[in-house]
From TrEMBL:
The keyword Transferase applies. InterPro entries: Kinase-like_dom_sf, Plant_Ser_Thr_Prot_Kinase, Prot_kinase_dom. PANTHER family: OS01G0588500 PROTEIN-RELATED (PTHR45621). It comes from Heracleum sosnowskyi. One of its GO terms (molecular function) is ATP binding. It holds the Pfam family Pkinase. The keyword Kinase applies. Keywords: Kinase, Transferase. Residues 62-338 form the Protein kinase domain. Gene3D superfamilies: Phosphorylase Kinase, domain 1, Transferase(Phosphotransferase) domain 1. This is Serine/threonine-protein kinase BIK1.
Amino acid sequence: MLDDKMGPDLILQILKRESGTTFDRDYIHTQVVFLCAGMDLVLQSHPEKFTQDQLKLATNGFSAENLIASTQFGKLYRGKIKHDDKSGEEKDVTLKIWEHQKCSLHDLRSKLKTEVLFLKHHNHPNLVKLVGCCESDELLATIYDISPLDTLHNLLDKDEINWQQTVNIALQFARLLEELHRSDYLVRNISPDHIMIDKECNPILFDLSMLTGGFFGDVPNGSIWGSPGYIDPRLISAGKLLGARSPWSVKCDIYSYGALLLSLIGKKAFNPENKEETKADCWAKKEFKPDCSLVHKKLQDDPLYDARCGNDITALAMCCLEYYPQSRPIMLQIVKFLEKRQIKVGDA
């Protein structure tokens, strides 16, 4: 158990002890492979090709009532498509329309192809399942096999996630990141905007537009893209100092995960369009004190909430935000830490 003097340094010690791993301050991924241990290789059939007219029909003309949310590189819609068989039955799907005023059509098409290629070959319970795509001159879209409750961002805004679900989402997403990192992938745009929550309240990562590593290769030179409110601030200063050399590393994803964890426990989903809104990491750095909880009061009032667990997870998030990347934990340590604090179904 943690004592009353808990802080990021102590959390690092606990992470090492509970994960059974040695914390290496010069930790570098060495497994640059096509297959990742723990992630199933799925040599799916070629993704189905859709036309713009088919997708208009599926979303009732991209109607406002079918709009789920805006993402970093487009918009997310609910839709219905007909099965290939003769039954005429419709299937609930989610469509991501790719658009961005700062990206050329060529860049967006490249990002779409990256995402489709990855999803075609990989399967994980917390990765979205690909149905198909559209690559017409007028429309770029990917179609996913999911009918979600909503995005994590929207559910945080609606205040519809309890404590058990909060810990479960944090743990499941950590497991996904651990497996991606183990195969040398970087997500690079971790954000509640890019995670859907399914009807069993499982987190599903659906935006892989900035994925690098593995068989996709290194981060493009000079690339500082990230999700506003969840990007490691050292990336900006390091990018300016390093010029064309990319400062991205696995520890940047760790920082983003820490900011995401703070959004979860503090019910603070950052909206870049709200100029007066404080980013979760900035808020936490100002408010955090050793052995304190940054868990939202409504979550603290949850019957399943445990104060020590709240303090532990707060300190874990702060550990992920450590200024020096080598002082941040790795995802395996985070997973082991959260597994010891998850609320089992039988406990509810």
